[in-house]
Every structure is written in structure tokens, then in C-alpha cells.
Automatic annotation (TrEMBL):
Substrate binds at residues 27-29, 55-59, 155, 267. Keywords: ATP-binding, Carbohydrate metabolism, Cytoplasm, Kinase, Magnesium, Metal-binding, Nucleotide-binding, Potassium, Transferase. This is Ribokinase. Residues 306-325 are annotated as: Disordered. The gene is rbsK.
Amino acid sequence: MSLKPSSSSSTDGRAAAPRIVVFGSLNMDLVVRVPHAPAAGETLLGHSIADIPGGKGANQAVSCARQGGSVRMIGCVGDDAHGKALRDSLERDGIDTASLRTVAGEPTGTALILVEDSGQNRIVMIPGANARLEADEAALKQQVQGAAFLVAQFETPLDQVARAIAVAHEAGCKVLLNPSPVQAIAEPLWPKIDTLVVNEIEAQTLCGQSADSPEEAAHAGQALRAKGIARVVVTLGSRGAVAVDADGARHHPAPKVQAVDTTAAGDTFLGALAVALSEGQGFDEAVRLGIRAAALCIQQPGAQPSIPQRDAVLRSPMPPDWIKL
Ligand code: RIB
């Protein structure tokens, strides 16, 4: 179902929405709010439990759409109520779900999420139908034609993500990768990535250097960029993000806000970044937009319901100025 223009050109003189293709996961998040994460052997009274649409791929698709992108989602759900709910949820955001496959005999992906009173979360993901996602080279070649970005994560089979990245790169479509949950990236894949978005843990796993402070994140980002990537963002939670490109590294601090639930903050950031870059905004402006979007996201509970619309992001306070590192 396509509710938005699929072309990047417009006949009425207005800039058309940038086309973004998301190759990735969809999960129903089973969200349990708890005072604190239980220790081993501890039994705890929780506050609440709820089913909320999520999954890194779907969240990133929703963020791109709410920031003004024209989005196609390539993924798999099970033939069950959660799968239907996730499809409906994407379609309400105008996302093209024609490439969203319903897999018979597989449950839809599920994420068990504990959210503490502090807003911090702990997530266990059970892939279900996500494990059945395959990169159909011929179809993908057409799907990425004229798109500004292919966006991918690592909640679906790595070999298929690698194949999708290779097809997009070959077709001249830029690749924005969020390698989460983190796994090693094969050497030939690195130069096919245009923009890499990692948190401090993912950065450390991928380059073997600590990325806990902005200065360390800058060094880690430089090491990752040296693998052949144009732009790297290392996100640092409440401390903002470090942007690294050919001009060096900048620390972008985040505005101070009260976190209710940090789930999907990284996905929200990534969607705003992808759309801003697709529109031709500068890297630093795009990172700032992502930080403002993520700051709004963490003030609301849940994954997809907490992802802000663009007008809300544009009304939100500007973060402090960035610092050259
Ligand atoms: O990034 C947040 C997402 O990670 C959640 O929505 C959950 O589904 C897990 O995949």
C-alpha cells in the first residue's frame, strides 16, 4: 500500500519527499515497567505491561516517515495478530508495505523490554519471522532505484543485510547502517557504507577502542571511518553524539530532558538524520535534528508511539552548540 509519492521529483515545483528504503526488523514490544531491573533470583512487582509496535527496522521507517520521508519497508512478519497490527501501524504512517512479507508458520518478532523508573531499558529480542527475511536482488535493485538511502540494521540475518547493502551500493543508492545488535562487519562491506550510526558499546565492539567520552568516541569514530565510510555518528545517550567526517570530529551535546523511556531513541535519531541528509542538509545540521528528535522520543513511553512528527521537532529547543574535538 503506497500513500506517499514514490518519486523524488515533483511536478508542482515543491521538493518531493526523499525516498528511503528500510530493510529490517519488525517486533511487537512486550513492555514491562519496573521500579528497577531485578537481580538474579529476585522477584519484583512491576507497574504495568503493554504490547507496543517496535523493532529497529520498523521504528526507523516510522521515524523517517514522520520526518517527511517517503518510505518503503522491506521485512517479514508472522501470520498472526501481532503481524497484522505492525503492518497496520506502518500504513497509518503512510509507509509503503508492499514489500512486507507475511510468513506462514512463523510468529512475528517479539522484544521483551524492561523499562526502569529511570527510563533505562533492557531488551531481549526473539527474531521469529525476522529470521526469514531474504534480500531478493532483482526486486531490491528496482526498489532502491532513485532512493536517497537504504537503511539497515542487524536484527535480521546478517548475510541478507550484507546482500541488500551490496545491491544498493551497486545501484548507486547510499547506505545508512545501524549495526545493532552489534556483530562483526566483514571487511568487504565497510566501503559500501556511506553513513554508520553506532552507540558507544557498538563503536567499541567494532573498532576495539573505548568510546565512553566524546574524545574517545571521536577516536573510535575516526578508526571506523578509516575503514572506508564517509560519515560516522557515535551516539552517547544523554551526552549527545559525536559526528565524524572528512572535516574531523564534533561533539553535539543533547538538551537536558527528563527521560521516561529511552526505547527507540537511537531509531528516532537515525530517521531524522536520514531524512535531513536526503534533503541535502549538512551533516552537523542533520545530527542536530536527530538529537532534537531523540530528546522528544525519550520523554514519551514506548517505541513507535514516542517517535515525534517533524513539526514537533522543529518547535523543540535547539541543543547547545557543537564543540570541535
Ligand atoms: O531500538 C528499539 C527496538 O529494539 C525496540 O522497539 C525493540 O523491538 C528492539 O528491537
